[in-house]
Amino acid sequence: MPEAEGGPELLSLTEVARRVVAEGIEKQMSHQRVSQLSREDPAFPPVVTIGRSKAVDWKLAGPYFRKRVKRQGTRTDLKGEG
User: Fold this and answer.
1) Which pTM does this prediction carry?
2) How far apart are CA 81 and CA 15, in angstroms?
3) How much is the pLDDT for 6?
4) Residue 45: exposed, middle, or buried by beta-carbon count in 10 A (0-12, 13-18, 19+)?
5) What digits encode the pLDDT tens for the residues 53-65?
6) Can you give the chain as a three-state secondary structure string?
7) Percent of the chain scored above 70 by pLDDT?
8) Residue 79 and residue 60: Cα distance in Å, rounded?
9) What percentage of the chain carries pLDDT values higher than 90?
10) For residue 58, which phi and psi values (nearest 5 degrees)?
């Protein structure tokens, strides 16, 4: 059984979002946001496809979300004013 202990803990992107909230890393997180980060952030852990679902190793994703620097969006409605 040592292999099971040391192996990956694969979670769907939906489950990753739930776990981020459950562990208090973020107040809220949607699976859509996790999916977006997986596509756009080069630092995001590798994603594997299992059937029609995408999964990521929580042993890599947990530390990623804990260390991630959040960047708040800029208001585009104020561009060009002032």
Assistant:
1) 0.78
2) 42
3) 81
4) buried
5) 999 999 999 999 9
6) CHHHHHCCCEEEHHHHHHHHHHCCCCCCCCHHHHHHHHHHCCCCCCEEEECCEEEEEHHHHHHHHHHCCCCCCCCHHHCCCC
7) 80
8) 38
9) 73
10) -65, -25
**Residue 57, CA atoms < 13 Å, CB-side half-sphere:** 8
Amino acid at 66: R
Bridge-partner residues for 50, per DSSP?
A: 53
Judge whether 11 and 58 are in contact, CB under 8 Å.
yes
Tokens of residue 73, six digits: 């969006």
CA 10 from chain centre, in angstroms, equals: 13
- Per the DSSP assignment, residues forming a β-bridge with 56 are 11, 47
